[in-house]
Structure formats: C-alpha cells, structure tokens
Amino acid sequence: MVYYNDMDYYLGIDVGSTASKCVVVDASGEIVARGLHPTGAGTVGPRACVDEALAQVPDLPSADDVASSCATGYGRHLEAWTTMQMSELSCHAKGAAHLFEGVRTVIDIGGQDAKVLSLDEGGRLVDFVMNDKCAAGTGRFLDVMAGVFGCAVANLSELDREATEIAAISSTCTVFAESEVISKLAAGTPIPNIVAGVHESVVERTHGLAKRAGVTPNVAMTGGVALNDSLRERLERRIGLPVATSPLAQFAGAYGAALHACGQGGNA
Amino acid sequence: MPPTLPLLEHAEGDLGYSSDLCAYARISLAYADVGACPNGERDMPLPDFVLCCNNICNCMMKWYENLGKHLGIPVIMIDVPYSNDYDIDEKRIAYVGAQFRAAIKQLEEITGKTWDEDKFQEVCRRSSECGRLWLEAASYTNYKPSPVNGFELFNHMAVATVARGREESVDAFRMLIDDYRSFVANNESNWHAPENHRIMFEGIACWPYLRATLTPLKEAGVNTTAMVYGPAFGLTYRTFDEMVEAYCSVPNAVNLERSVELRKQVGAAGKIDGGLVHINRSCKMWSGFAPELARRVSADLGVPMITFDGDQADPRNFSEAQYQTRVEGLVEIMESTGKGA
Q: Which CATH number goes with the domain that contains A198?
C-alpha cells in the first residue's frame, strides 16, 4: 500500500469494447494505482476499474477528489464525470511514449480495433492507420478463436509454443475463420498448430497496417494482445524489428489519459 | 429505418444480388423491380430506355445492362475508358465522340425526335455557364475564414449534377454566389462554429450519414474547405469535342498522377491542415485508389490524411463511433503538430 499526503492525483480511464482500465498518476506522472475490469462500455466495468484503483490510494477517497481526469476508449463519452475526453489514439501514443523510451511506432491491438500509431521524436502522434470495420486481426478475433479451442485467451501463447507447424488460416473474416478452425479441428489438426495459424493471420493483418503507416524503430506494442508473447514474437519476425512490450501494455491508453489529465508531455 | 434499407434488402434477397455490389446499383435494381419508394415518397417513373456512360464507374455497365433486361428496354452504352495517361489524347476523344454520335442516332430511333444542333449549342452554353458558376460558388470555401460550411456543397452539387443544362440552375447558382459574396462583404459565414481547422474531404459523401459525418467535425471546429467530389460536376465546354473531353476528364476516369495534382491544387487553395478520406465500400475501384492518393497528397502538402470506412448508400457499412475516433485523432494530430489556427 502506498500512502501519499497533500498530493494532486490525476486519473485516466480507458473504456474499451471488452475491458475497462484505470490508472492514477501523481503530479510527476508516476503511476500510483491501476485497476482493470474485463467488461467494457455500458457495463459495470468502468466503475469497477476506478474503484479498484482508488482502493490502492488511501488519501483518495473518490474519483471526485482527483485534480483532473480524462476518459478515453470507445466508451469515453459515457464517462461524463471526467474532466476531459480524448481519443484512444492520442492516449495510447502518450502512454506508449512514457512506457517505451524512444518509441516511434506503436502497434495497439485492442478488443475491436487494431491500430498503428506513428510518433515523432518528441513522442507526439503524427499519423495513424486503423483496421476497417471488420473485427479480423483484433482481440475480439482471438477471443472468438479461444472460445472455439475451449481455452482462455491467456493460454493461446503457451499453446502456440507447442506448435510443430503452422496450420494456415486463409479467411480474414472472423466468422469464416471460425468455421475454418472448426474444420481443421474436425480433421484432427493439433490445436497448437491451429493456434499458430490464427496468430499468423493476426500478424499478417497487423503487418499490413504497419506497412501502410510506415515502421520506424523503436517499435512497441500496447493493448491486451501485447501480453501474448508468441504472437508478439511472430510479429517481430514478420516486421524484422524488435517489438517491445510491458506488463503495463494493457494500461497504455489509461496511462496516456492520466498523463493528459496531468498535462504531462507535449501532445495537446 | 433508413429509407434505402428495404431496397437494399430486396436487391440482396428477392433479386439475389451480392451485398458486395455497389449500393447505388442495388438500390436502382431493386427500385426497377419494386417500382416505388418504400416510404411512399418521391416515386419516379420507370425509364423507357437507359443511357449508360461508364466514365465514373465500370460497375454501371452490368448494372444498366441488367436494368435494360429486367425492364425490357433499350440500353445505349457509351464506353469512356480509364485514362492511364495524364492528358486526354485525340484517339480517346475520337473513340468516345463516335459513340456519342452513334447514341444520337439510337436516340432518334427510340424517341422519334430529330437531333437539333441549335438546341444542343444552347444547352452546351447553359451547361458551361452553370458549371462555371458552380465552380465559382464552390471556390468561396477558399476564403479564410470560409464564409461557407463546406459540407453545404454536398447539397448544392445536386443542381450541377442533374440539372446543369437548365436556366433555373444558372439562376440558382447566381443566387448562391450573391449569398456567399454578401457573407464575405459582411464578414459572415453559414459555418456556425469556430474554424479551428480546415480540411479536405476526399471521396463521395457518406450520404446516409451526412449529419453524423458533419457533427463531429463541427463540434471540433473543423470546416471542410476543399473537396474534389462536389466541384467535379462543374464542367465547362464550348464544342462537341470539348464536351467529349470533359466526359473523359471526370475525376474517376483520370490517372493517379492527375488525381493527386487535382487534390493538391484544391487542398492548397482551401488552405487545409489535414484531410479525411472516405473509403467507400460500394466503390471497389476508388477504395483501391484512395489510400495511395491520400499518402501522396499527405506527403506533398505536409498534412495528415486520415481514412474512414463508410458507404455512399448502404447504411450498414458505417460506424459512427469509429468515425468519431478517427476525426478526434485527426484533430489531435493537427493540434499537436501545430496545424490550423
């Protein structure tokens, strides 16, 4: 438990499509608390992740007591109690710029969005490319696939490591890919090989986005999918550059939002 | 329910067309079958013949062919090939011109009327005057601040699109210019928001969501001061050959280099800080073209160009939340990099 007295705190909340994340920073931009709830916009998730974070800061009894707050993510406009709302693009860029030194390209794969952000040397967002309306290549795609395999999405990385070969998934559509996976299962293809194929399909789409945006090192990955080491390593091999990540990758958006609330760094 | 949806569903269900087909085509083909608007408004009589010119779209060739077969009516086809060269050469003008002359004969046979050269010259003169006035009206967005809400051009362009040869259209554009001129003189604008940023809107409007596409821009103080799509219908010509050349020079028929140059010209004139590019799911050709177009314009003008997914007429192919995020991202980039006011 960390105790702070007479300090200003700044809160960032990232209300995504599949999870809600909250980060509290102090006036120097240091993270003092964080919370995560696996449900997103329009659910109890936002409140729950804020409560979880606030419980870690005894001298911060409620969200009303923060000096400033910023909401980001698809559900940001539902969080009217916050001081400001910003797009997850700028927030992920700012969060990543603070998490990864010298980062110029940020690959963020969230629940329903995959995006590649280009940052300048000062860590400012200067360009971005996002996936189209389709959910292929996003966290939701992996969720659906994990459901077919009957495993937790967190176990996909380990399964991939057991693969002896890649069972290619040719469909880019999530629904068709699901059918393809079921066909492969029915044909007796080992699950780890199919998982490797699923990961490769995500990597291919992400690589396409990255090529469109342009890849400048250093490259970092944020969002929940960044915690999938096997997928990230496949992405490294495809891009041909190291792709950094952090245990806080999933909090990058909320962290960036908190930094925006705090007025830290250049962007906006 | 969006009024086009029942027609789209009719095309996909009763008529068996793929949902990947252009939404204009699906709606038109469904209307030809149903013969009435689903909401009971604005019914149009069905045609006695169809005249298809593919200078803006190659899908139209099969679409109109199917219309002709479905309705049992003649199809007149004028093929305007995509120009891989920067300029329109004489061979193309001769090829397309010959088709127009053949079409005139076909029309004489179908309608029983004879070609009236004097009337043609009169309509040409009026159309050119109308085109010139439309371009002049649209150019008022170049003023900084703009006296015009740029999205308004999406409304006024209808006159230039379907009624360019009518005297009333000439009058309408003169009135519009008078309005804009008085706005400038009185330091007024019908853009009732701050003009923090000025952008180019590239591509066709997302018609089912005009308000939804404008509102986030307005809330962020982003006026659209450059576009190619609306003013593209401001065509000027004096002779038959010049008319044919104009048909060959519409934005969808010219090559990438010329398309880029056109965007750079209107972008510079509109003093843009960034751009929003509509990736129109209905138009496969333009969806392939637009990202590279945007990349080149962005590099040459030094402004961010952001794409969003939508559709010209299928309301199911657009997400307001995704659009809003992209607009906010664009605004945040323009602000962080010092673009705009």
A: 3.30.420.40
